[in-house]
Design brief:
- 34% of the residues lie in helices and 8% in strands.
- By secondary structure, the protein is mainly α.
- Among the domains are: 4-59, no CATH class; 71-106.
- The chain is elongated and about 160 Å long.
- 0% of the residues are buried.
- Residues 9-15 have low confidence and may be disordered.
């Protein structure tokens, strides 16, 4: 065998009575080409079956919507309802808020409508006395007199005469005193014969 296959080109080769112009013409194919043609036919037949299965609705009912698509549409409708409810609530809150602001503004306008408009600016005015620091009158007062080291005229050397009054100023000072503290802890000796205490007893340090 040379591995070739002869195939008829028409139905006349299968023994049918009716013949065609190419009924007696044969085509010679190799074994490999024959196998490839058979497998190609099976492949395209299988693909056709898959396409037909995908095109057919689920359940075999024409026009039926798949379950997943119906669930998605129901979920979308529920979300749209929730969105509309939330938007309506936001609009209601905005109307209430703006209504309160407008009412408050109208009340303020009515209150200050008849009041005269002054030219005075806010805050402390120029030339007005300041508050200053409060005098600590409860603190003890320590007087300090300051005199000139040399009460003489620097040009001619004549002495300066005393003038009535003084120029005073008060300064609050916080005095920190540093000192040494000597702590003496008394010692005692035992005078009894029992041994409940040591021979020399020292007073313990104070707590705190």
């Amino acid at each position: 065998m040379d591995g070739t296959v002869q195939l008829p080109c028409s139905s006349a080769a299968r023994g049918e009575a009716k013949s065609t112009p190419f009924g007696d013409v044969f085509v010679t194919l190799s074994k490999q080409e024959h196998i490839e043609l058979v497998w190609a036919a099976k492949y395209w037949k299988m693909e056709h079956g898959r396409a037909a299965a995908c095109a057919e609705p689920r359940g075999g009912v024409p026009g039926a919507i798949p379950t997943s698509r119906a669930a998605a549409q129901a979920r979308e409708a529920a979300l749209l309802c929730e969105l509309e409810a939330a938007q309506a609530k936001i609009r209601d809150l905005q109307q209430r808020l703006f209504a309160r602001k407008s009412e408050r503004g109208s009340l303020i306008d009515d209150k200050h409508r008849g009041a005269p408009v002054g030219s005075r600016r806010r805050g402390q005015q120029r030339g007005a006395p300041g508050h200053g620091r409060s005098r600590q009158a409860h603190l003890p007062l320590r007087t300090e007199d300051i005199e000139l080291e040399s009460a003489l005229c620097p040009a001619c050397g004549e002495p300066l005469g005393a003038f009535a009054g003084t120029e005073d100023c008060e300064v609050v000072e916080v005095e920190v005193r540093a000192y040494r503290r000597l702590i003496r802890r008394r010692r005692y000796r035992r005078t009894c014969e029992c041994e409940a205490l040591p021979g020399i007893v020292t007073a313990p340090p104070r707590r705190g």
